[in-house]
Design brief:
Layout lengths: L1 H26 L5 E8 L2 H20 L14 H13 L10 E6 L4 E8 L3 H24 L3 H16 L18 H14 L1 E5 L3 E3 L2 E10 L2 E2 L2 E6 L8 E5 L2 E7 L6 E6 L11 H9 L9 E5 L3 E2 L3 H4 L18 E3 L3 H16 L11 H11 L3 E6 L4 E5 L2 E13 L3 E11 L5 E6 L3 H8 L6 H19 L3 H7 E14 L11 E8 L1 H13 L4 E14 L6 E13 L3 E14 L2 E10 L15
Parallel strand pairs: 9-18, 20-25
Antiparallel strand pairs: 1-3, 2-3, 4-6, 4-13, 5-6, 6-7, 6-10, 8-9, 8-11, 11-12, 14-16, 15-17, 16-17, 17-18, 18-19, 20-21, 22-23, 23-24, 24-25
């Protein structure tokens, strides 16, 4: 026993000597390695200190490359160095935590070394460059679909990531033969988006303690599919509003009816960046980039545009997204009787008085109305031009366009879709899909129109259930044996083959009970939830019994709430035993597409 203990002590001392020798090898080769050392009572404390020192060494090494606007003009040399260090520190969340680690001494007198080969330093910055390019691609796709808010967001985030890269002055647009510099090209694209915008302000109307007017937002002559903005009310800039399909609004305190309104486009989206720790750190560490073209002065009753010089920069030629067409659907020629009811509902929501229109609803429909009255402060934007669609003995009336405001200084525009039964009672209310998503589904004319309407109705009720936190509905549509898979990133330790991979995408399968329990906890923590669908692909297959159809719905989901936001890809495998009773057998969510560009689909289940 004594000999065994002596052998163990000897082995421990040998391991310490080997480690110390390795640490000395690193120190004695400054031309090959950058390193930092830390001490502390715990390994974690020592490791943090070592990583901070390594970041300082990297900062000194690349400082001369960061002459491109990472600090404001006029700051001293010391301030500049600290700013560079804070920018380099943004890489620690993504890659630097995987720098090689040596434990020189164990606890309680811990001593840790973190080091990286100088030759590998560029690999760290290459990861940031790839992310910049990914954002650029996404922004271009959004711009082509008139999703102005999304395009501005990803172009601006790409610009800030670029400014955190030591080669920002020399990086060029990949895949472009003319090789334009990104630090010039990205701001030009942002200004292109501003140049393509135009606005028209409706008449002022006195409401409860304030005066409001509708705001029409166009991009390249067609309704902007989304656009986030704020306005100056004479004292301060207001809450950010998310306009939808060209419709927004402005509000002024009291009885003020100004002849002009100053509008500012939102393009930084710092709140949404909170869902991405690396991105959030970059936005905090780099100096914001102001865009003077983000400001617009809108005259009452007139269309406001940016200057002719800015407008001349517009280079995009994509055709505007077509308006929704329900060709092949039996359209109700006169919705006047139902329109009266719809307008009453809008007024009741504005006043928060659901009881005043209880006579217009079925029991289930009224329950949905009550939930809707708690979904922020409501106001009607547009209740004229309603369309009625006759299907299966019911009439679907759309869209009652409304705005919802929340205490967390956020406002959304939503289309309410109301379904009347044969007795002209409202049996359901849902938030409508945006026009792009509706058009995508209606375009699949190989299926009967009734099937397409069923899918649209299902998706609208599905997203509304999450927005209104309807656990009862969600529980009812999921099969008890549903396959529910959620993808998430996990931090991992680096391997010798790939020292710079610090996370992997892991898929977790859970039961319906587990999923609902997690969902309930999530709902409790959020003031609001807002979901938008886009880029849907839908396939159909026969059920195993051959008596029905399964639908595989692949759709991009933009999820935004008061304390969290993300963008990912949703797959739903659903059957409709009848149009009003969907059954979901598979639900998967993944934060990004697979390496081959695919996402979960029918062939996987």
């Amino acid at each position: 026993m004594k000999k065994s203990l002596q052998l163990l002590v000897a082995l421990m001392m040998l391991a310490t000597l080997v480690t110390a020798q390795n640490a000395e090898d690193v120190k004695s080769n400054p031309g090959e390695y950058l390193y930092g050392e830390g001490v502390g009572s715990t390994l974690q404390q020592a490791d943090r200190q070592a990583l901070a020192e390594l970041i300082s060494q990297i900062s000194v090494t690349v400082e001369s490359s960061f002459t491109h606007q990472v600090v404001e003009e006029g700051q001293g040399a010391g301030s500049f160095s600290e700013k560079v260090k804070s920018v380099v520190n943004t890489y620690s969340n993504a890659t630097l935590t995987n720098a090689e680690r040596l434990i020189v001494n164990d606890e309680p007198n811990a001593r840790v070394m973190r080091y990286i080969r100088r030759a590998d330093l560029q690999k760290i910055f290459d990861q940031r460059r790839r992310r910049i390019n990914d954002f650029i691609v996404e922004a271009g796709q959004y711009a082509s679909r008139a999703q102005v808010a999304d395009a501005l967001k990803y172009y601006y985030w790409a610009l800030l990531l670029l400014r955190s890269h030591p080669d920002a002055n020399s990086l060029v647009l990949e895949g472009d033969a003319s090789r334009p510099l990104l630090n010039v090209w990205i701001p030009a694209r942002i200004n292109d988006l501003f140049a393509g915008l135009s606005f028209s302000l409706g008449p002022w109307q006195q409401e409860n303690g304030y005066t409001a007017a509708s705001l029409r937002v166009n991009y390249q002559g067609a309704p902007a599919r989304n656009f986030d903005y704020t306005w100056f009310d004479g004292r301060d800039w207001g809450a950010v509003v998310s306009a939808k399909d060209g419709d927004g609004f402005v509000e002024m305190p009291g009885t003020s009816k100004p002849a002009t309104v100053k509008i500012k486009a939102e393009y930084m989206f710092t709140g949404e960046a909170r869902a991405d720790k690396e991105l959030e750190q970059v936005l905090e560490a780099t100096v914001p980039v102001p865009f003077r073209n983000a400001y617009f002065v809108v005259n009452q009753g007139e269309v406001a545009r940016v200057s002719a010089s800015a407008a001349s920069e517009v280079s995009r030629t994509e055709a505007p997204v077509a308006a929704v067409s329900f060709a092949g659907v039996t359209e109700v020629k006169s919705v006047a009787p139902l329109e009266t009811i719809v307008k009453r509902v809008g007024k009741a929501l504005e006043a928060g008085q659901a009881e005043s229109v209880r006579d217009c609803f079925t029991a289930e429909g009224y329950e949905m109305l009550e939930r809707l009255t708690s979904y922020g402060r409501a106001r009607t934007l547009q209740s004229d031009g309603l369309k009625g669609i006759a299907t299966r003995g019911k009439t679907i009336v759309r869209p009652l366009r409304m705005a919802f405001s929340f205490e967390s200084n956020k406002k959304f525009v939503e289309d309410l879709v109301l379904t009347f039964n044969e007795k002209q009672k409202i049996e359901s209310i849902a938030f409508g899909l945006n026009q792009t998503a509706v058009n995508d589904i209606l375009a699949n004319d190989t299926w009967p129109i009734e099937e397409r309407l069923t899918i649209i109705t299902f998706l609208e009720h599905y997203k509304t259930a999450y927005a209104l936190k309807r656990l009862d509905y969600i529980e009812s549509v999921f099969s008890d044996k549903a396959v529910i898979i959620v993808g998430s990133y996990l931090k991992i330790n680096p391997t010798p083959e790939n020292r710079f991979q610090n996370r992997i995408l892991k898929y977790n399968q859970m039961t319906k009970t587990q999923y609902l329990k997690n969902l309930e906890a999530s709902f409790r923590s959020k003031e609001f939830i807002n979901i938008e669908f886009e880029d849907n692909v839908i396939r159909k297959a026969m059920t195993k019994s051959g008596k029905g159809n399964l639908y595989g719905i692949q759709i991009k989901q933009n999820y935004y709430s008061s304390n969290y936001g993300d963008v990912g890809y949703l797959y739903l495998q659903v059957e409709f035993p009848d149009a009003d009773t969907p059954v979901i057998y598979v639900r998967t969510w993944q934060p990004e597409k697979n390496a081959d560009g695919s996402i979960y689909g029918m062939t996987d289940f």
